[in-house]
Design brief:
mainly alpha; 78% helix; 3 helices; disordered N terminus
Length: 85
C-alpha cells in the first residue's frame, strides 16, 4: 500500500513542475549549500533534504525530456537516410 501511495505521489504534478531546469538546478544548489554549511536543526535539515529531493526530480525530468528529444532527432535524421532527405 505504501508503494502504491509513493507511485501516485511521484506521478502527481507538483508546483515544482512549472520550474525551468535552470531555476530548479539553482534552487537545488542553494539547498546543498545550506546543508553543507550546517547550523540547522534536525527538522530544518530534513526539510531541506526533502526539498532537494523534489528539486532533483524536477531536474531529472528535464534531463530525461531533453534526452528523449535528442534521441528522436537523431532517429529522424537516421530515417531520412543519406543526404538528409
Amino acid at each position: 500500500m505504501a508503494e502504491q501511495q509513493e507511485q501516485q505521489a511521484a506521478a502527481a504534478p507538483t508546483p515544482d513542475d512549472a520550474l525551468g531546469y535552470e531555476h530548479a538546478r539553482d534552487a537545488l544548489l542553494e539547498v546543498v549549500r545550506q546543508l553543507e554549511n550546517g547550523g540547522t536543526s534536525l527538522e530544518e535539515s530534513l526539510a531541506l533534504w526533502e526539498r532537494g529531493e523534489q528539486l532533483a526530480k524536477v531536474c531529472q525530468r528535464w534531463l530525461d525530456g531533453a534526452r528523449a528529444r535528442l534521441d528522436a532527432a537523431l532517429a529522424a535524421e537516421e530515417d531520412a537516410g543519406p543526404g538528409g532527405e
